């Protein structure tokens, strides 16, 4: 998603921000209403995102570099940082500019973040940006089985969280531009949309989900409408217009202009963009062994398997796409600009729970209007764009290596037994697994939620620390006693917890450094040397991009690596098992998703054994 040097995002300090470091406590349900059509009543009571002290960030930046750069590199960087933060220097000027912005905006980061991290980002959203979500397989295997706004405020501990992202998810869509994209949200209109988009066999339909009296369709009515769509959209040689949304954003921006010059095409695209969400009814995938089913399902959720399968049965610009395969494969894909993973997962949890309840509303005997098919006029130029998109999508699909692993030996129960943070425990296992494979530590990204602040998104938890490096280097050293190894594990976990607390409190370093750089850009100042330093590039080259996305549902989110020679790792710790999705690129000969998954499995077991064998494990 954000490869170093060639990819803009890592240059400004970005990695996949779809996670939350611990589950929200859904307590104290409070009815939420809109204020001025956008903000929730409790939003004004949330604090603003702080601007950390300059010296604090500079000191913590140097500390973060220690486990991942050489001594001579670090010495040079210290000199640059000292120059940057000295009294009366450029750092102080940028800090004052950032503090002024913080006083005059709801959130000094959020607008920049969406712009630089997403809308300016030009690689395809598929794999590189949009995460997929794999739900448990459903127990149907045919077409019949396939078709068969008030929220509680969330809390992290005692602190309420920003709920704005929930209202950015529905009826919203990314719109390609020639150099920068935009996001439109139609829930803010005076008459919000009342339809969803259904796509089947590459054909798009508008399905009204509310009756004339404002009541939603019942499940029976919904099934009738889906059956109508499926029967009127047989497999044909129709061009998969949706494949265009998989393109490089510059290419899609140009193709979008061409596509929407036609009035019919423009109306069809608008209907998709305005819809509440998209429902993708996929064809069955080839049968695979049960042990590889989850990995294949993850690929379906992430990119659809290529043009010959379901990649054209999508509109990847749509913020939320529910995906249901004829073979029982189901899940979702979401476009990342409007929201992070936790609100999406919370919504999915609600949907799964809702579907398990019997419907009490009787089905009214009212005639239903036929779902409206969306038509596209395909010119030779558009057909050429579609063929280019197919070719590029197939290359990307073949390049992605995805392994979904269910670690079944234990879950978050074991770390809790030893009074350790499950997230920190898993992160240290990732550090140990990577060190065993490569004999070095690497820059590691874990996303931290900033939703305790108004319009908060994410910051970075840097999981590779001096404490974690000491721990992983000692773990397989036969000269070290188990008690010492446990001490080092405890220190590494405490260091991770400390950084986590710092990050969710708005005191981490990465977004602050980004903000200072953005002030320089906006004030037309020379970019300070610390940003052109090779060490800064190394600090942002996240070979491990990780995210914990906990869910009540036994699911797992997945995403691609953020650098060409790295891994994407998402995990959902359940009580007695942990779901992992590990990705890498086949074009990099040094990475292998299955090998890292196996190394994580071994690391978790070895750490558990260490704790059980040490007397300190009982303390």
Q: Counting H and I runs of at least 4 residues, what is the number of helices?
A: 21
- The share of residues in helices is 40-55%
CATH topology of the largest domain: Chloramphenicol Acetyltransferase
Mean pLDDT: 86
Morphology call: globular
* CATH class label of the largest domain: Alpha Beta
Verbal overview:
The chain has two domains: 8-23 and 35-50 and 108-115 and 408-507 and 533-618, Chloramphenicol acetyltransferase-like domain (Chloramphenicol Acetyltransferase), CATH 3.30.559.10; 130-399, Chloramphenicol Acetyltransferase. 40% of the residues lie in helices and 15% in strands. The protein contains 21 helices and 20 strands. Strand 15 and strand 16 form a beta hairpin. Helix 4 packs across helix 18 and helix 15 (422-438) crosses helix 16. The longest helix has 23 residues, at 482-504.
Question: Would you summarize the structure shown here?
Answer:
The protein is of the alpha+beta class and about 625 residues long. The chain contains 21 helices and 20 strands.
Sum up the structure in keywords.
21 helices; alpha+beta; Chloramphenicol Acetyltransferase; single chain; 2 domains; 8-stranded mixed beta sheet; 6-stranded mixed beta sheet; 619 residues
